[in-house]
Amino acid sequence: MTQSEKFPESAHRISITAVIIVLLSVGGAIFFGVYGPRIADRLTVLGGIPLSDVMGAAAELNGQAQFSCQHDESIEPLQVNEQSPLLSRLLGRTFQAPNLGEAGYELQKISGTSLPGAPYRCAELVYQQTAPNENHCLALYLAADDGQYVSFDKLGRSHPYMPNNLLVIDSADSGETGGVIFIWSDGLVLYLACVEDEQEFQKLESLLGAP
To answer: Which end of the chain is more exposed for a tag (fewer CB within 10 A), N or C?
Structure first.
């Protein structure tokens, strides 16, 4: 009388283990593929938004604003009574647009934009020189500041970006050509003024409320 052959149970268990490992690997790859970028963004926000990221975005937007300002002759200057309500709505807090009339600039345009750290609470202000035969434009970017921005010291350590601290960055460092960006905060709003050089900023510094 012959006995039925029995296969070792260990082989069966190993095959199930291998299947489970494969399924977990595939599931993990799908999970991180879908949610990985969101998790990374969340960790970035928790650790603070580097000002270099904000500056790079502003430099790119400034190039587009300069082109539009110099080639779109249909833009009509905003009425003064329209400026503050529009800005306050965009930033989510009460704000009055800087008046640069004494320096020969007229506010032409206010529009919503997106900057790192405050994607839905930002504004782009485009000023144009009023002097005859002048077509120079200046862009001022504003972002709601809730303490999410950080700067780095010489040792690479991050620190919360404090109000009334003025930074000057050559936009060429971010790959953009020409121009200088001045960055400061009043504790509620982060300012990024895109100017041609430091001499231009000096004429506007007090009117912009820079520290």
So the answer is: N
- The helix/strand/coil state of 191 is strand
Closest C-alpha among 186, 37, 48 to residue 116: 48
**Contact at 8 Å (CB) between 70 and 137?**
yes
Angle at alpha carbon of residue 153, lines to 40 and 125, rounded to 5°:
70
For 87, half-sphere exposure in the C-beta direction (CA atoms, 13 angstrom radius) is 24
CA 21, chain centre distance (Å): 41
Which range, of 22-36, 47-61, 134-148, averages the lowest pLDDT? 22-36
pLDDT in tens, 46-82: 479 999 999 999 999 998 888 888 777 666 677 778 8
Sequence-distant (6+) residues with CB within 8 A of 92 are 121, 144
What is this structure's pTM?
Answer: 0.74
Element (H, E) at 182: strand 180-185
* Cβ-proximal residues to 191 (8 Å cutoff; 6+ apart), any chain: 140, 141, 142, 182, 183, 184, 185, 208, 209, 210
> Residue 110: enclosing H or E segment and its boundaries?
strand 105-112
Q: What is the CA radius of gyration of the chain?
A: 27
DSSP letter at 46 equals: H
Mean pLDDT to the nearest integer, 15-33: 67
